[in-house]
Amino acid sequence: MTTSKPLIVPVPLGARAYDILVGRNILGEGVEQIKKLGVRKVALVTDENVHSLHAERIIKTLADNGVDVAAPVVVPAGESSKSYAVLAKTCDDILATRVERGDLVIALGGGVVGDLAGFAAAIVRRGMRFVQMPTSLLAQVDSSVGGKTGINSSHGKNLVGAFHQPSLVIADTAILDTLPERELRAGYAEVIKYGLINSERFFFWCEENWQQIFAGGPERDEAVAHSCRAKAEVVVRDEFENGDRALLNLGHTFGHALERIVKYDNARLVHGEAVAIGLAQAFRFSARLGLCAGQDAGRVEAHLKSVGLPTRLQDVPGGAGSVDAILDAMTQDKKVKAGTLTFILAKGIGKSFIAHDLNKADVAAFLMDEWNS
Amino acid sequence: MTTSKPLIVPVPLGARAYDILVGRNILGEGVEQIKKLGVRKVALVTDENVHSLHAERIIKTLADNGVDVAAPVVVPAGESSKSYAVLAKTCDDILATRVERGDLVIALGGGVVGDLAGFAAAIVRRGMRFVQMPTSLLAQVDSSVGGKTGINSSHGKNLVGAFHQPSLVIADTAILDTLPERELRAGYAEVIKYGLINSERFFFWCEENWQQIFAGGPERDEAVAHSCRAKAEVVVRDEFENGDRALLNLGHTFGHALERIVKYDNARLVHGEAVAIGLAQAFRFSARLGLCAGQDAGRVEAHLKSVGLPTRLQDVPGGAGSVDAILDAMTQDKKVKAGTLTFILAKGIGKSFIAHDLNKADVAAFLMDEWNS
Ligand SMILES: NC(=O)c1ccc[n+]([C@@H]2O[C@H](COP(=O)([O-])OP(=O)(O)OC[C@H]3O[C@@H](n4cnc5c(N)ncnc54)[C@H](O)[C@@H]3O)[C@@H](O)[C@H]2O)c1
Ligand SMILES: NC(=O)c1ccc[n+]([C@@H]2O[C@H](COP(=O)([O-])OP(=O)(O)OC[C@H]3O[C@@H](n4cnc5c(N)ncnc54)[C@H](O)[C@@H]3O)[C@@H](O)[C@H]2O)c1
């Protein structure tokens, strides 16, 4: 097994503190850290794709190092696994491995597996420890960090879940080599989001280095580690999302509305693509409100385009619905507090802020312009 | 509305501290306290029986006092509602009321509704506040206090759930007037359990006052309040059940085994009846091991009998299975840590303790004697 030293990003959450290990082929080091958790037995949850590509090798490495892993729990790939039915089956399958309360659940997969298995870990025996082994770029830079877990309801995405921090995150960037190009691009939208939120410098660096990030050079490790650091900082300030953590929703209010409009049909739009459009829109809207320079909005859009990400309503295959439909989908978002519209807007690249009480008419006018542009 | 001043039992859990209100017809005071929580909207969950007996009046009282209550979420009565399917429906029904994250769920019912609705509140929108309005004696003295919520899996009872403390518990003892006699008796087993754990005095008091407790005199309020205080004390010492809280399982290791053996068929055995047998057994077993006086075991059994509760394996309608079956059911219990048997035993009435590493052969021999006695 080739193995190397990981970058370590600490998440200092007091009694719930943990480390994120980032690097190429760091499984060996990851297993050492898992052993330090004092684990008796491990239940590993993964999806069909990741199972056939990576599970065998990882389970063997764990077993070779004396960690007792039960037969893996394998769920169908894709968002539809974030359902009550798959959650119930996952909990039962974890229980069937006869893990006890001090034991461990490992979530090996993209954001879907992380959210689902993390939630199952939160509720099986009223809470088991779990380790995230994110295998998609999106999961490595976003969903595996911060402790939000959950599933979808017919009433909306992520409406049922738990705050449950992992005990460790192992982000092996080599595992992204098998990720489909489209998923890599989608995850990349979340990477540059961190630059857009509060680091102009990181955004500029991404503009220069994105090819190496995609190709799997050391820049990939740096980008993942920076993203995790950025997310961890926000999470430590506001673990339960009562304030600041909302900044991470930059691009997501527009984005979620579009996902809802295409009925979460991944063939049309995956999450990161919706976020890419949302990021471009958040900057164009900010420019329109006179908050940020039009140049900045243009620069954001140009970079998203150059990596092959969508940036406009017109880019949604099959159409993004009417302005009314988008507005309606937006106000159903759970981030809408007591009826008022909250957006994450920007005063420039790296200068995002939470804008409360936005005027619905302004949003409508903006969308109308977007639609006709 | 007749209304009176409640007894108040505080549960000082720091940021999760709350009060338990106990008394006859205290709904008025309860509503005042709910209003103090600063609630915008309430989703009320109840079961069919309690719904037809009490829900209308309670919803009206809330509404008359300016609390906005959505149409109640009604689940079937009985243990079978602690399932994945009813949980999913309950979450969706709560979401359909359009409550938001700062809003409130009220659990109006026995332990089943409390465990189910409390769990739903723990996971809808990753955690909503909730108020327990326990309507069975068991729920008032046990399940509504302490924050354990959950459902059953095919692998066992309460294996999926969350620690989620309520914001308030309203135990209106008048509501017990409609409770079937058998359920009242079953709940009473948990009441005297508190005496058996650490208060000889309370047990003696129960022996003298049980008729008034059943009849609904002020002794009922006292018994409920004492029980809540006793439970709260343990919970405050050990919220997440890493140690001391296990004392509350006095009578439950034997009891759970019997429930499992009758396949949770309430026609044969309800939880409190199983606990009653378990309490008598724990004392007889303690006496057999020379830990407590035979007299004490006799006294416990006599009191259980005098209120009409079962005390022996032979009392289980349809039989309690073989000694092997009981032992097997016992070692499946989730309280069995890494294979060793842990029991709550007693050095006398009010002198219970956690006994680790019990010899399985001793338990087997005891059960054999019980069986042949
Ligand atoms: N919890 C959070 O804080 C948070 C944050 C953002 C997003 N999310 C959630 O994350 C989910 C999206 O995550 P995602 O984009 O990773 O989706 P995903 O888990 O469905 O993965 C995308 C696809 O890539 C495949 N895949 C994953 N890793 C692979 C690999 N190494 N090689 C080959 N194929 C691989 C998967 O099987 C799947 O088909 C959404 O449900 C979203 O709600 C959660
Ligand atoms: N969370 C905890 O800490 C904890 C502790 C002990 C028990 N429990 C759980 O509690 C459950 C048992 O609770 P339970 O005994 O209250 O069962 P329950 O909720 O099923 O109630 C028993 C029966 O009484 C009916 N009922 C309730 N209140 C009534 C009233 N005022 N008038 C008329 N009928 C009424 C119910 O509809 C039901 O048919 C079990 O699932 C057990 O696991 C939980």
Properties at a glance:
homodimer; 373 residues; Rossmann fold; Dehydroquinate synthase-like, alpha domain; 2 domains; globular
Write the layout of secondary structure elements.
The structure is a homodimer of 373-residue chains.
Chain A: E1 7-11, E2 18-23, H1 27-36, E3 42-47, H2 48-64, E4 73-75, H3 84-96, E5 104-109, H4 111-123, E6 129-134, H5 137-143, E7 148-153, E8 156-163, E9 168-172, H6 181-198, H7 200-215, H8 218-237, H9 252-261, H10 271-288, H11 294-306, H12 323-331, E10 341-346, E11 352-358, H13 360-372
Parallel strand pairs in A: 2-9, 3-4, 3-5, 5-6, 6-9
Antiparallel strand pairs in A: 1-2, 7-8, 10-11
The complex binds nicotinamide-adenine-dinucleotide (2 copies).
